[in-house]
């Protein structure tokens, strides 16, 4: 029986050693897991900070784009106003050109009428001179 007790005691001692080894393995595993969790937590915190920074940058970019959009809308409105003013100036200039063209046409018609009147006047002067010479020739008995 003593041999059995000794063997049981040896087995219990062996089991205690195994339990101690298991406790040591569990502790080292827990320490490694905690270290990994701490590293993952730090990485997640850094990632969260990075995302927050990116969000801030996106907000800044969004506000800059809104500002650029407003400036562009203002510039387009000013350009439309300038184009409308230029259009009205061109319409006025075209109207003035049309008036000048009408005046030039009227002037050329007037010059043609004056030239025709000159020809008629010259013919009338010749007819008057011929009539006067005819009257004088009869009066002097030349005819």
Descriptors:
single chain, 143 residues, mainly alpha, 1 helix, 97% helix
Q: Helicity range of the residues?
A: over 70%
What is the helix tally? 1
The radius of gyration over CA amounts to: 60 Å
For the largest beta-sheet, the strand count, sense and barrel status come to: none
- Strand-residue fraction? under 5%
Judged by helices, strands and strand pairing, the structural class is mainly alpha
Cα(first) to Cα(last) distance is 198 Å
Helix-strand pattern, N to C? H
- What are the segments in which pLDDT stays under 50 over at least 5 consecutive residues? none
In short:
It is built from 1 helix and no strands. The chain has 143 residues and is mostly helical.
Task: Walk me through this protein's architecture.
The protein has 143 residues and is mainly alpha-helical. It has one helix at 2-139. The protein has one domain (1-104). The model has no long low-confidence stretch (mean pLDDT 93).
Strand and helix layout:
Blueprint: H1 2-139
């Amino acid at each position: 029986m003593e041999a059995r007790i000794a063997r049981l005691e040896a087995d219990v001692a062996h089991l205690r050693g195994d339990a101690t080894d298991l406790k040591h393995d569990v502790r080292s595993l827990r320490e490694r897991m905690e270290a990994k969790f701490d590293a993952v937590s730090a990485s997640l915190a850094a990632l969260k900070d990075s995302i927050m920074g990116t969000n801030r940058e996106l907000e800044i970019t969004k506000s800059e784009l809104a500002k650029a959009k407003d400036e562009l809308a203002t510039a387009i409105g000013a350009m439309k106003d300038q184009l409308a003013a230029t259009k009205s100036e061109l319409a006025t200039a075209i109207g003035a050109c049309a008036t000048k063209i009408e005046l030039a046409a009227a002037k050329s018609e007037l010059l043609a009428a004056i030239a025709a009147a000159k020809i008629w006047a010259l013919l009338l002067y010749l007819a008057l001179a011929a009539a006067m010479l005819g009257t004088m020739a009869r009066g002097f008995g030349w005819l």
